[in-house]
Each structure stands twice: as structure tokens, then as C-alpha cells.
Design goal:
heterotrimer, A mainly alpha (253), B mainly alpha (231), C alpha/beta (164), B: 231 residues, mainly alpha, 0% strand, globular, C: 164 residues, alpha/beta, Fructose Permease, two-stranded antiparallel sheet
Chain lengths: 253, 231, 164
């Protein structure tokens, strides 16, 4: 027994709402049940069995919203076997419980700490250097990438079940993430340079050097775990004071 | 009318950020220009997007731990700055931008508190869904999931216009009362941008990245300087 | 040395690998858990997210060599599933000299558990377990990621009682 393609597409669409009702007890449980429900409706004609199946997906669940697509796909893989009587009813839940932590780690490490901030920095640099077309292009590429990866993970989970882990391992995402983090840091450096150049253009060389000096000081302070917003306020205060001093003593611009 | 636009955009951003999609549309780099466009000052939004993005590059939702709400902070800052720029007739200048950050930046921290409250409140939605399932209504049970997007929308759609209105009222008053602070505040904005770039580099938590950041900054600045690209 | 003993129902995930591993400078994660060690899927999954240069071992709790971990020159992050596992580890030879800090990261809500932090819910028995660990000389704290403020045992008890 298998779930038809149209229903799979519907489930994937619903995966995009995984965190709509993120709550402190079940976390993404309601979102997971919402996503998988169309597949369960197909697999269990008997209303009693469908409700019983849906109920097990109300168990606490939390994963990365992108990589969770693989688990939704894999849970359908196991539900198909439960419906056919090939696996015990506990199999889908066991699958979810084993994979949620590791796939959350992959998603957090690769997407949240790698790909997305990389594209954030890329979009920022693009905006400064080339204007809005570069911003739109960066966002378009990011969206094509994450939607394609989410869909591929969902399909791989549905087709291969447990084997999805091997497939994911072959992608060596942590290594890519390390490259993206280095690239992202370079982009932030480029951004610092562009900020400084723009300050030189507006206010003179002093303001440009101020921007670079603040970047260096900020790097040190944040490295010593200074808090973000207070650091920003301090930078603004020091910068404004420097501007006043330049105005008083420089006389010029 | 402007405030209605602000409310809708900020509300949708709050939903996109967590409940639906996660396509970077609620990230500062996109949200500030979107608000600028919606309010008729795209250049103002484009000025604010990059520094706010880098400042909050590390604001990611990992597991059950919550970061500051960068979308709420950005929405209030960008909307407030654009509306202040309109009132002044100057558009978003660096001085307007930096004052908006000072006045509305803390909304990101407040947003973390409201996010936590929303997550507590959503426990009821999950409980209600389970009760509906017990009564034999699976379709109604899972639909409860979608209602979870109402509260983030409402909170953001209420807080943002209020904060933006305060910002848009204070900034013109300050700049009219102290016209000489315009240039020094421009320096303040330059310093904020420098700090934001550093915060972005730190967010990547890459030890070799720190040296790469410094190198790239110096090279970019030197090349731009020599090429006369100081805009 | 054992840099941190982490209690986490989700074992290895983002908070552990993106938060704690770089924070502690750990190059090795040891998961001491019978259930995970018995599942090939779990063992394969644990290694999925490891950053380059970091290794992970998944072992049944009873076969962990606590002394070797404590003597290792590099910082090791030890992950256990729940408070009960931590107590079993102590019976098996884990001492405060070998792992000074017990960090309670994620213990999900369940019937009979009371909330002490947004990510930690405890039963009365688990709270007693933490008291015994503290009395044995471990420093008990609750927090999800390094950037959170640590919540000590006294505060955990206060919140647990207040949540009743």
C-alpha cells in the first residue's frame, strides 16, 4: 500500500507549516500531525485506525523545519508498512524519536549556522555593492536551494525510510557548513570594508577609519561574550561622540 | 494608511519567520527593503537592511532556545525610520537610521519575551487538538495547527505600528531641536555598521573566519580607496 | 577530561553540536545510552551532524570507561539521556573529580513533570536524583545553550515548588 503522488505533494506543502503552533510541551507535534494527516487518511480507510495513527503523531517532536521533511517522508514510509501489517504500530514513532535530534543538529549546523547566514551576508554585500537586483537574486537562489533540498529530503525519506541517513551522510553537510562559515566571515569582512568606504564618501576618512576601528573593537568585545544590543549602543555612543569631536576640532565637514 | 501597511507587513513577517516557510523574507536584509518599498522609500529600506542583517546574523532559533526577535526589531526600526524620513522630507538619512536603531532596537528583546509567551499559549492549541481527536474529529484537530499563526501575526501587527509611531514622532523632534547632531549621528551610524559587520563575523563561529574577516575588510577598504570608490 | 556531563533527552542535536562543542572546545562526544547503542539507525544518525574534526562514540552505559574519559588529554562532552542515567553512571564509577558539572539541557514535558526552565521538566524523583548528585559533589545546573544563564539547584528547587 502506498500514498499517491498528489497526496505526497499535499503533505509536503503542509510541511511548510510545521512550526505554525510550536508549543512548549509538544513543540512541533501539532504541526507534524497536520502535515502527515492527508497521508494517514489515504492509508487508513477505517476512521478508528486513522485516529489511532494520528494520535501517535501527537507525541512530542522537534526538529529543524527543513530537515524535518525527511522525517515526515520517512514516517509515511513506515506508516505504509504499518497499514499493510508488515511493521508494528510503534515503528513510525520510533523512527521519529531516533532521527529528530540528529537531523535537527544537521539542519541547525548546515542551514541555520551556515547556508542562511551565508546568504544573509551575501545579500547584504550585494545590496551595498549593486543595489536591489543583487538582493533579489540572492534571495531567489537561497529559496530555490532550500525548497529543492526540502523536497528532495522529503522524497528520499519516503522512498528509503531508514536509508535516508546514509543518503544524508553522503552529502557531508558539516564539511560544506564549515566552508560556508569561512566564506560568510569573508563576506562580513567585505561588508565592513564597504561600510567604511561609504562612510569615507559621506563624512571623510575619519569616519571610515572609525567604522573599521569599531569592527575591530566589536570583534574583540563580542569574542569576550559582550552582549549584542549593549555593544551596538556603545558603538553608536562612541561613534557619535567621535563625530562631535571631529565637528568641534576638525571644523570641516 | 501607512500604519495599516506596517501592521500587515510586520504581521506577515512574524508568521513567515517561524510558523510558515522560513524563506528569509522576514530576515532584516529582506524585511527592511520590503517595508521601505511598501511605504514608498525603497532606498531607505536598502540603507537599513545590510547593517541590521549582519547585526542579527546570529539570531537563529535552535531547538527550544529562543533568540532575540530580529524581525520585530527590524520592522519597528525600518518602519519608524522611513516614516520619520517622510515627516522630515529627507528620507532615511544615516542620522535617522541610527536614531531608529537606538529607539526601537530593544523591541527585538521584547519580541523574545512575547515569543516565549506565544509558545506557552500554544500549549492550549495542542491540548484542544487532542481533545478534538478524542471526540473523533481528526480534521478539526489538525486544523488547530493553522490557528497558531494568528497570535504571532497579531502581536507583531500591534506592537510594530505603535513602536514605529513613537520613533517617527521622536526622531523629527530631536533633529529639529538639535540640527547640529545630524553629522555626528552619521558617524554613529558608521560605527554601528562596523560593529554589525563584526557581529556577523562572530555569528559564523569559525576560528579561521576571524582572520579572514579582518583580511577581507582591510583588502576591500584598501582596494576601494585606491580605486576611488568612496561613495 | 570530561568537560561537561550533559543530560539531554534528544542526545546529540543542534544545541549540543553548534552550541556546546565549540564552547567547550570539545573534539569528542560520547553518548552513553543503551537504547541508542542498540540501534544501528541511531548510531548512524548520531554521526550525521558532526563538524569536521569532531568524533562521536555511542556506547551502552555499562561499558563506558569513565576513568579513561577523565584522563583523556582533550575535552570530552558526555551526553546522557536522563537524570536516572546520570545516577546509574555514578554507580558505575563516575565521580565529581571526573566530571564536575552536570548540565540538564532538555527533559521534555510528560505527565507528572513540572517546569523548571523552558526546556526542562522534572518529576519529584528526578529532582531528588539531582539533589543526590549535588550532595555527591557534582555542580548541577539547568540550561539549554551556553549563552543562557545557568540555573543552579537551589533555583531549580524553588521553581519546581512554585510550579506545583
Amino acid at each position: 500500500m502506498s500514498v499517491p503522488a498528489a497526496t505526497l505533494r499535499r503533505v509536503f506543502w503542509r510541511c511548510l507549516f510545521l512550526q505554525a503552533a510550536w508549543n512548549r510541551r509538544g513543540m512541533q507535534n501539532l504541526g507534524f500531525a497536520y502535515a502527515i494527516d492527508p497521508a494517514l487518511r489515504r492509508l487508513y480507510a477505517d476512521p478508528g485506525r486513522r485516529i489511532e495513527a494520528l494520535r501517535r503523531h501527537f507525541a512530542t517532536f522537534n526538529c529543524h523545519p527543513y530537515t524535518a521533511a525527511a522525517i515526515v517522508g520517512g514516517a509515511i514510509h513506515h506508516e505504509e508498512r504499518v497499514a499493510a501489517g508488515e511493521e508494528p504500530p510503534g515503528a513510525p514513532l520510533a523512527y521519529k524519536q531516533v532521527l529528530q535530534g540528529p537531523l535537527a543538529a544537521v539542519g541547525d549546523g548546515f542551514f541555520w549556522a551556515g547556508l542562511r547566514p551565508f546568504f544573509g551576508a551575501l545579500a547584504a554585500v550585494g545590496t551595498m555593492a549593486l543595489g536591489w537586483p543583487a538582493l533579489v537574486a540572492s534571495l531567489a537562489v537561497y529559496n530555490a536551494l532550500h525548497l529543492w533540498i526540502r523536497w528532495s529530503l522529503f522524497r528520499a525519506g519516503h522512498r528509503c525510510g531508514d536509508e535516508v541517513v546514509t543518503r544524508l551522510a553522503a552529502l557531508s553537510l558539516p564539511t560544506w557548513a564549515a566552508h560556508l562559515r569561512k566564506g560568510g566571515a569573508v563576506l562580513c569582512g567585505v561588508a565592513a570594508g564597504l561600510f567604511a568606504l561609504s562612510a569615507v564618501g559621506r563624512l571623510g576618512p575619519g569616519a571610515g577609519f572609525l567604522a573599521l576601528a569599531t569592527a575591530a573593537a566589536g570583534l574583540g568585545a563580542l569574542g569576550l561574550r559582550a552582549r549584542l544590543l549593549p555593544s551596538a549602543y556603545a558603538a553608536i555612543g562612541v561613534g557619535t561622540a567621535a563625530g562631535m569631536a571631529a565637528q568641534v576640532f576638525g571644523g570641516g565637514r | 494608511m501607512d500604519y495599516l501597511v506596517v501592521a500587515v507587513v510586520a504581521g506577515l513577517a512574524a508568521v513567515e519567520r517561524k510558523g510558515f516557510l522560513q524563506a528569509m523574507l522576514s530576515r532584516p536584509v529582506a524585511l527592511a527593503p520590503i517595508l521601505g518599498l511598501a511605504l514608498g522609500d525603497l532606498p531607505g529600506g536598502l540603507l537599513l537592511g545590510p547593517p541590521l542583517e549582519l547585526l542579527w546574523l546570529g539570531a537563529v532559533n535552535m531547538g527550544a532556545s529562543l533568540p532575540p526577535n530580529e524581525a520585530l526589531g527590524t520592522a519597528a526600526i525600518a518602519a519608524g525610520a522611513v516614516l520619520a524620513g517622510k515627516a522630515l522630507g529627507t528620507g532615511v538619512t544615516p542620522a535617522v537610521a541610527v536614531l531608529a536603531v537606538v529607539l526601537a532596537g530593544t523591541l527585538a528583546v521584547l519580541g523574545r519575551t512575547t515569543d516565549r509567551a506565544i509558545e506557552e499559549w500554544n500549549v492550549r492549541l495542542a491540548a484542544r487538538a487532542e481533545a478534538l481527536l478524542d471526540r473523533g474529529s481528526p480534521v478539526a484537530a489538525v486544523r488547530e495547527n493553522l490557528y497558531g499563526m494568528a497570535l504571532p501575526f497579531a502581536v507583531s501587527a500591534l506592537l510594530t505600528p505603535v513602536a514605529a509611531a513613537v520613533v517617527a514622532w521622536i526622531i523629527p523632534a530631536v533633529l529639529h531641536a538639535f540640527p547640529t547632531v545630524d553629522v555626528p549621528l552619521g558617524w554613529g551610524f558608521a560605527a554601528l555598521c562596523g560593529l554589525a559587520a563584526a557581529a556577523g563575523a562572530r555569528a559564523f563561529r569559525s576560528a579561521p573566519g576571524i582572520g579572514l574577516f579582518a583580511g577581507a575588510a582591510v583588502v576591500t577598504f584598501a582596494v576601494g580607496w585606491l580605486a576611488g570608490g568612496t561613495r | 577530561m570530561i568537560a561537561l556531563l550533559r543530560i539531554d533527552e534528544r542526545l546529540v542535536h543542534g544545541q549540543v553540536l553548534v552550541g556546546w562543542v565549540p564552547h567547550l572546545g570539545a573534539q569528542r562526544v560520547v553518548v552513553a545510552d543503551d537504547e541508542a547503542a542498540g540501534s544501528p539507525l541511531a548510531r548512524a544518525a548520531m554521526t550525521l551532524a558532526l563538524p569536521p574534526g569532531v568524533t562521536a562514540a555511542v556506547e551502552p552505559l555499562r561499558s563506558v570507561d569513565w576513568d579513561a574519559l577523565a584522563r583523556a588529554p582533550d575535552p570530552v562532552l558526555l551526553v546522557l539521556r536522563d537524570v536516572e542515567s546520570a545516577e546509574r553512571a555514578v554507580v558505575a564509577g563516575l565521580t565529581p573529580a571526573r566530571a564536575a558539572v552536570v548540565n540538564v539541557g532538555n527533559v521534555h514535558y510528560a505527565q507528572g513533570r513540572r517546569k523548571v526552565t523552558p526546556s526542562v521538566f522534572l518529576t519529584a524523583a528526578e529532582l531528588d536524583g539531582l539533589r543526590r548528585l549535588e550532595a555527591a559533589g557534582f555542580r548541577v545546573e539547568a540550561r539549554a545553550v551556553p549563552l543562557d544563564a545557568p540555573v543552579g539547584l537551589a533555583e531549580i528547587e524553588r521553581r519546581w515548588n512554585a510550579a506545583g
